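User: Please fill in residues for this 143-position structure.
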């Protein structure tokens, strides 16, 4: 059983990594150093299977954190989704910078709105990509 889980984990790791590399190339994000890490449940936002952290903006280092690692599914979805967030990162950064120049209350309101708008944009882009290259059931589980 342990050997089987180990094999599945390796397959999942390979799959996630290949998807990150594919989307990095496709979205022309090669100037970024992208890594991933598995995190314990509850480390990232509730209801999220993954998120994106910019660890070192000057050196363009980003980390995709994945929390539902043991479920052995969703790697294609997470890689695609988080890499689209990375594609919008410069726009997001600049907008957040401008929002911070407002008063504290207004800044918080605008930053929350910007985060929602970014999520809407990423979801729309992801759906558009999904139409051209659907993620089939089970496709992202084992390769
Ligand atoms: Zn998102």
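Assistant: Residues filled in for all 143 positions:
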């Amino acid at each position: 059983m342990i050997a089987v889980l180990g094999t599945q984990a390796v397959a999942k790791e390979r799959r996630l990594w290949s998807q990150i590399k594919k989307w990095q190339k496709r979205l022309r994000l090669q100037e970024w150093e992208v890594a991933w890490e598995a995190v314990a449940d509850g480390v990232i936002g509730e209801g999220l299977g993954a998120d994106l952290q910019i660890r070192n903006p000057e050196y363009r280092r980003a980390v995709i954190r994945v929390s539902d690692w043991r479920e052995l599914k969703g790697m294609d979805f997470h890689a695609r989704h988080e890499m689209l967030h990375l594609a919008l990162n410069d726009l997001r950064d600049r907008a957040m910078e401008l929002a911070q120049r407002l008063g504290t209350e207004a800044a918080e309101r605008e930053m929350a709105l910007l985060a929602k708008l970014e999520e809407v944009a990423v979801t729309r882009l992801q759906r558009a990509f999904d139409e051209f290259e659907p993620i089939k059931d089970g496709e992202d589980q084992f390769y």
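For context: Residues 2-30+72-132 form one domain.
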